[in-house]
Amino acid sequence: MNKNASGGRRMFISSLGRLGTSAIAAGSILPAQEKSAARGKKADEKPEDVGPTEDLMREHGVLNRVLLGYEACIDRIEQKRDFKPEVVADAATVIRKFVEDYHERQEEQFLFPRFEKAGVLTDLVRVLKSQHEAGRGLTDRVMSLAKSRGADDRPKLAEALRQFVRVYRPHEAREDTVLFPELRKIVSAH
Ligand SMILES: [Fe+2]
Ligand SMILES: [Fe+2]
User: Which of 57, 70, 97, 126 has the maximal Cβ count within 10 Å?
Assistant: First the structure.
């Protein structure tokens, strides 16, 4: 998963360039390691020895940066300050392309089935999967509302962003502190 994860991050970073999400994504959201990956590794540079759960935790760093961006947008909408909906659309694209279509797919294909097969933390895994689904629905809503220029839709957009943050802060915290540490107990080091 590690090698695929690095490849996926690189794929995501190159897709950001194509999407033109420069302001919020490449500049402020990406953590340092994503930026260095974007610059490209030297040919003689060895791949980092990072375990699969560490990789997933690092990817939560990208999620966290977007959540901070969402919270800043919620504040601006609530305070009726100047606000660019395209910034929210760009941030939602990062969530769709990297968090939902890559990071969460990794969890759903490689991580959750291990727990289900071992009969460990199955209730938590069920909740996490349902949160992935809920998050995708909220991202659809955020993307749609971010396109709207109607002032009436701004509070609806703020509410959708608020709901997303409310789902994902505990979601990633449970994965980081409960699920990921447990993985070491159910699979061998190899
Ligand atoms: Fe997840
Ligand atoms: Fe996750």
Answer: 70
Ligand 1 centroid to 145 CA: how many Å?
24
The per-residue pLDDT for range 74-100, each reduced to its tens digit, is: 999 999 998 788 999 999 999 999 999
Which ligand number lies closest to the CA of residue 132? 1
Residue 27 predicted with pLDDT over 90: no
Residues present in the chain in total = 190
Domain count, the chain: 1
Domain limits at 158? 2-40+48-186
Q: Ligand nearest 52 Cα, by number? A: 2
Separation of CA 170 and ligand 2 centre (Å) = 11
> Whole-angstrom Cα distance, residue 32 to residue 35?
5
String of DSSP letters for 62-121? HHHHHHHHHHHHHHHHHTT----HHHHHHHHHHIIIIIIIIIHHHIIIIIHHHHHHHTSS
Report the pLDDT value the prediction gives residue 187, as an integer from 0 to 100: 83
pTM for the full predicted model = 0.77
- CA 142 to centroid of ligand 2, rounded, Å: 20
